[in-house]
Write a structure and sequence with these properties.
metal-binding; alpha/beta; 19 helices; six-stranded parallel sheet; 29% helix; globular; binds adenosine-5'-diphosphate; seven-stranded parallel sheet; disordered N terminus; binds zinc ion
């Protein structure tokens, strides 16, 4: 899709008395006009403060004013900030994203300005040193003053306290000399600088397939121009080495590099590898960074001091002026999709940024998204394939355990065959991993006496028991309550039963089965923050753990050489929901988890517990025939006109009042424009019909590929009167439905 609205092109600068359009980081329809005060010259991209109502606000000069408001009614720009202007590439990108996602441009701008305090000049400290020529014009000297002079004669700058202490005088003496002009003030910042990546670090020779791939990307980087590559290779095939090499070539060519990762907090191993390759830590960017660090990185990127950034999806909006390469690792991950505010997919928007900025983009994955493969098939992306694991490591053997034929004992979740393999692994002093993508102890608590199910009071979801924390939690809104003793509905004591397993329950079973084994439970409830995560990884690496039980936090990116067995507790879990991508996602996740086994010399095995061994996903995992699976998926979607062969958008309406919501939804349904190429489905209750106390209804807009879905939705929404209490969220290319 291409944006309808052309970016405002403002070539020259605007001088005093002229008007400029200033975009503010707010949900407004566009830039607001302001007058340039005398003595100021403003160019597009300049950060300025402007009055808005009673306060001053920072915005960006976006273009010439629209001229709609008479000059005398206009307010004046207050000031220009001392930061590098927003690069043209980022301004174009902001507009593009706004048009594509149907968001107010100011809301996208907000993503690009989200570095608290970044726009204020860095805080400076003051130090003193001997002023030039001061010796010739000394004022009246005292012994104390002479001692200060003696210290300062070495020419170094010192803070006032330091200088006074070294000279053995009071701070007042230093001040007196400064006032007299003998000492001069110098300003300095205590902020950490950025390491320069070392491109000469010795590194392993690449395999033939690796160097071909690196050369293809590297050549494009050096020649310039947009191209998207899919770097496609099984886990452990050396994709990271390839894109590090491409990044090194971009850095050598004087360009900045951005590496996007799905879950930045989970990447201590990645940062170590980065450091081994480039001799320094990269600049990091993600939402867990303290404000000060975000400010430092934002500035560093804007001023070109930070040459390479590793970040989560929002790093895409950093003010790079010389960006020459974006890598999106694990491009299929849904963590790249932002589902709040501006709904965007960082993978897709990275490709857009590359196309606007005329530089290459690399998408890396062992299990590419169907959308990405479709782009390869259509010749839009260049396919670089690494078909083998590096070195002696082999792909693991994958087996299904048919739970109908080999059921666990009553009240247990692990089949005898899986338990036996774990016992063998323990005997050989190897590690095993049990994977279950479900936090907590049990996903549902039910009263045996009256059938009542414990539900979240604010959401349409069950409460999940967390036995270790002795509480029930809603995984959608964060609501928690202590686990009740009696049923809240009928009051029966000891009647509440836990239904189904979560990882905590599996951990309990494993401890009973193998009391001597050292067990580690890894889920986001246990691993709060990067430090806990690093510690868990260290324990596994140093073989302080025999059996790892984990949710998807263990699925990705790790190399554990002693890990030879992966057991998937419930392979059918993700297939239950009716989501369009349920099969694709289950395949990706289970393939990733399987990839944890046998990363080094020791061969690995994967045992998948399933009630549906004949399901297409299971067959693909067993045969390892990913492409046949993707082709079948593609054929199904093409037949139904679903993405990537058709286009989809979700419109979610939410309100605390159900009657109001339903009335609005009915009105909207009536007002939907007729189109041959576009169907509107709904309104229907959204997948979470109640979330955080708000009722939710949804329309799905399903369009043919060539239809302009944004234009259609904009035209539709323009006719609808939306009450203040109702929120409308438009999600182009939605993931959850
Ligand atoms: P992927 O990103 O495809 O999962 P990695 O780049 O992590 O694969 O490589 C897997 C392992 O093989 C890593 O330990 C890496 O250091 C090693 N490796 C990859 N390529 C080479 C190479 N050319 N020489 C030596 N070791 C390599
Ligand atoms: Zn809830």
């Amino acid at each position: 899709a291409s944006p309808e609205r052309a970016p405002h092109a403002l070539k020259g600068a605007a001088a005093g008395g002229e008007r400029v359009g200033v975009l503010l980081p707010l949900a407004l329809s566009g830039a607001y006009d302001y007058l340039v005060p005398e003595g100021l010259r403003l160019a597009p991209g300049d950060y300025v403060t402007v009055p808005l109502g009673p306060r001053l606000m920072v915005g960006v000069v976006w273009g010439p004013g629209s001229g709609e408001v008479a000059d005398k009614k206009l307010k004046k720009v207050a000031d220009r900030l001392d930061v590098p202007p927003m690069p043209e590439g980022l301004r174009k990108f902001t507009e593009w994203v706004a048009d594509y996602t149907l968001s107010p441009p100011g809301m996208v701008l907000r993503l690009a300005m989200r570095a608290p305090g970044a726009l204020e000049p860095p805080r400076l400290c003051t130090a003193y040193r001997l002023a030039e020529g001061a010796e010739a014009v000394l004022p009246k000297m005292t012994p104390a003053r002479t001692r200060v002079l003696d210290v300062a004669r070495d020419g170094f700058a010192r803070r006032s306290g330091e200088l006074a202490e070294e000279a053995g005088v009071s701070a007042g003496v230093v001040k007196g000399l400064a006032d007299a002009g003998v000492l001069e003030k110098v300003a300095f910042t205590t902020e950490r600088g950025f390491d320069v990546p070392d491109l000469e670090v010795p590194r392993p020779a690449l395999s033939a397939a690796q160097s071909d791939a690196a050369a293809a990307i590297g050549t494009r980087v050096e020649e310039g121009g947009f191209e998207t590559f899919l770097l496609d290779g099984v886990t452990g095939s050396g994709k990271t080495e390839v894109y590090f090499e491409a990044a090194a070539r971009a850095l050598a060519a004087g360009r900045q590099v951005l590496i996007l990762l799905p879950e930045i907090a989970l990447t201590s191993q990645f940062l170590d590898r980065f450091e081994a390759r480039f001799g320094c830590r990269p600049a990091e960017w993600h939402s867990d960074l303290p404000a000060r660090e975000r400010r430092r990185v934002w500035r560093g990127v804007a001023e070109g001091r930070a040459r390479i950034v590793v970040g989560a999806r929002s790093a895409l909006f950093l003010p790079f002026a010389e960006l020459g390469l974006i890598v999106v690792d694990e491009e299929h991950e849904i963590a790249f999709k932002q589902d709040e505010g501006v709904h965007y997919n960082a993978r897709d928007m990275a490709v857009v940024r590359g196309s606007l900025g005329a530089f290459p983009v690399v998408l890396a994955s062992a299990t590419p998204a169907l959308e990405t493969m479709a782009n390869v098939w259509a010749g839009r992306y260049r396919h670089l394939v690494l078909s083998e694991r590096h070195g002696a490591a082999q792909m693991p053997d994958v087996f299904a355990i048919d739970m109908r034929a080999d059921p666990p004992e009553r009240g247990r979740w692990l089949s005898p065959r899986l338990v036996k393999s774990m016992a063998q692994g323990l005997a050989k002093e190897e590690q095993s991993l049990l994977f279950l993508n479900r936090r907590g102890y049990a996903p549902l608590t039910l009263c045996r006496s009256c059938g009542h199910r414990l539900e979240c009071p604010q959401c349409d979801s069950w409460l999940v028991e967390h036995r270790f924390r002795k509480e029930l939690a809603c995984h959608h809104c964060g609501y928690t309550a202590p686990s009740p003793k009696a049923c809240p509905a009928c009051g029966a004591e000891d009647a509440l039963v836990a239904c189904g397993p979560g990882v905590e329950r599996i951990a309990e079973e494993v401890t009973e089965l193998f009391p001597e084994a050292r067990v580690a439970l890894l889920s986001s409830d246990v691993l709060r923050g990067p430090a806990a995560y690093r510690e868990a990884v260290r324990q596994i690496e140093e073989h302080e753990v025999d059996i790892i039980i984990g949710t998807q936090v263990v699925a990705k990116g790790h190399n554990f050489p002693l890990l030879t067995l992966v057991g998937v507790v419930d392979s059918d879990l993700g297939l239950e929901n009716g989501d369009l991508r349920a099969a694709e996602r289950t395949f990706q996740l289970l393939h990733q988890v399987s990839g944890r086994a046998g990363r080094a010399e020791k061969p690995g095995r994967v045992l998948m517990q399933t009630y549906m061994p004949e399901h297409g996903v299971m067959r693909a995992l067993l045969s390892g025939d990913r492409d046949a699976f993707l082709e079948r998926e593609a054929a199904g979607r093409e037949r139904l006109g679903y993405p990537p062969y058709g286009r989809l958008a979700g419109i979610v309406l939410s309100s605390p009042r159900l009657d109001q919501l339903q009335a609005l939804a009915r009105d909207m349904a009536r007002l939907a424009p007729l189109s041959e190429k576009i169907d509107v489905l709904g309104p229907a209750p959204a997948p979470l019909a109640l979330l955080r106390g708000r009722h939710r209804m949804r329309f799905l807009v399903k369009a043919r590929r060539e239809a302009h879905i944004q234009g259609y939705i904009a035209q539709w929404l323009a006719q609808v009167q939306i009450p203040a209490a109702v929120r409308v969220a438009v999600d182009i290319d939605p993931y959850n439905f």
